[in-house]
Amino acid sequence: MFEVNIAVVLLVSLVVMVLVGVHIAVALGAASALGVYLVTGNYAVVERMLASTAYEALRDYVFAVIPLFMLMGEFIARSGAVTDVYRGINRGLRRIPGRLALATVLGNALFSLVTGVSIASAAAFSRISYPEMKRHGYRRSFALGAIAGSSCLGMLIPPSVLMIVWGILTEKSIGALFLAGVIPGLMVAGMFCLYILGVAILRPGVVGAARGPAASASAAVAPAAPENPAPAMASPADAPEAVDRFSLWTSTLGIVLVVVTVLGGIWFGYFTPTEGAGAGAFIALVLGIIKGMRFREIIDCVLSVGRTSAPILILLVMASLYARTLAMTGVTNAIQNAFLGAGLTPVVILAIMIAIWFVLGMFIDSISIMLLTVIIFEPIAVAVGFDSIAFAVIGVLAIEAGLLTPPFGILVYTVKAAIDDKDISIWSIFASATPYWAVLLIAVVLVANFPAIATWLPKLVF
Q1: Residues 137, 211: contact at Cβ < 8 Å?
Q2: Which long-range contacts (CB under 8 A, 24 or more apart) does 439-443 make?
Q3: What tens digit of pLDDT does each residue of 165-205 get?
Q4: Domain regions of the chain by residue span
Q5: Element (H or E) spanning 312, and its range?
Q6: Cα(135)–Cα(263) distance, rounded to whole angstroms?
Q7: Whole-structure pTM value
């Protein structure tokens, strides 16, 4: 009974602090300190536990993988390589309906290989692809829905920051988790593309097609309503923007070299994930210099990554303290026994977890969601029979879907903020992103029923 009371106090205090706006790191630390004090009744124990946890966490070699992968992505993004490749994909798909939206999905999949952060993908492609889709007559809400939805690939296709955090929290192989995300990530990207192709074929006006010179002329006389497509170019035209071949091939080969070196090196045992991230950051730096990055821009990249990654590392320290507190107080066992003792089936337990992830996704970012829940959910999922690797993929998919869930889906708000277009309502973007949310939910169901989708590649290598 004492463990149950401690569990209730810890979880309620943590949730209340998060909901009233306390920073997640402070909330985790305060809840952990409260839990340790309730068990021991000694402030000195709380201080020693916090100090030892911070020391052991910060000196852990694996924690460097996060800023190094983020630095790799920052170098590549600021070099303009992703924009070059996006334009190349766009030009290569010029005979396919909805090519700009398809290029956005494929570009996001590529971008995720070098950043692994969905919010970064959403912000980048709002600036890269939205102006192009608007210029070619795409319905604006559809264009923004494609950007918000496809940015979820950033947390699934390796190297994913969420996979790294999951591996650190659960002490699972980060390389195995990277491999586990490959097939589900490609599957989700394929389903996104099929949806866009279906819309382009069935409703060509949404993607700026089937609009002749007369339509363009009339659109020029009477301005379109905000939700109508912007006037399309009058020529059959819609010709993709010319791409400098040298820039395109330099960018493509550079990104391929980064991906092959980092992921190949990790998968075949030449690198640890941290060493692979360091090698990738170095190659990305060389690519950036070749693409014309100056010394000031390189320093800006380093400072930007420092500002972004430092809070994440502090969060991980607090999460480590939180995990220790849960173990010390017996909260994890109490919650697990409550779930198992309730006689719920594994499917119902999984549904409850996914519902919690969806609700949290309306209010806080994906890493914070993971820090709050994974330490508790993962042992329960394994206890009821789910494969730990497959469950990691299910968790990432569900958490990412939560970031598209109204009314506070963070990815949708990121896209809205990035375009700064007052004519587009947030609800129209939510509506257009709903099909992508549904695809993620379908992927969750598929991986839950066919875990080999996630586990087949890791079992080949590990």
Answers
A1: yes
A2: 439/149, 439/188, 439/191, 439/192, 439/195, 440/152, 440/188, 440/397, 440/398, 440/400, 440/401, 440/404, 441/401, 442/191, 443/184, 443/187, 443/188, 443/191, 443/397
A3: 898 888 888 888 988 988 998 999 999 999 999 999 998 88
A4: 2-207+242-461
A5: helix 295-329
A6: 37
A7: 0.76
